[in-house]
Specification:
Elements: E1 26-28, E2 31-33, H1 36-55
Antiparallel strand pairs: 1-2
């Protein structure tokens, strides 16, 4: 019960947490996103967070 099946598809977008539509989901970097724009926003946010951590 505690371990998630690797073949199980995520139900929510990794960026904005909206429910995913199976026909339009976007898979990159081991995560599902609702669209390309949401993926790009998540990448920028992660890069900013990493830069902030490196500066501190």
């Amino acid at each position: 019960m505690g371990k998630k099946d690797e073949n199980e598809i995520a139900q929510n977008c990794a960026g904005c947490k909206k429910a995913l539509n199976p026909a339009t989901r976007y898979y990159r970097n081991n995560a599902y996103f609702c669209n390309l724009n949401c993926y790009k926003k998540k990448i920028k946010a992660d890069a900013a967070k990493a830069a902030e951590a490196a500066a501190a």
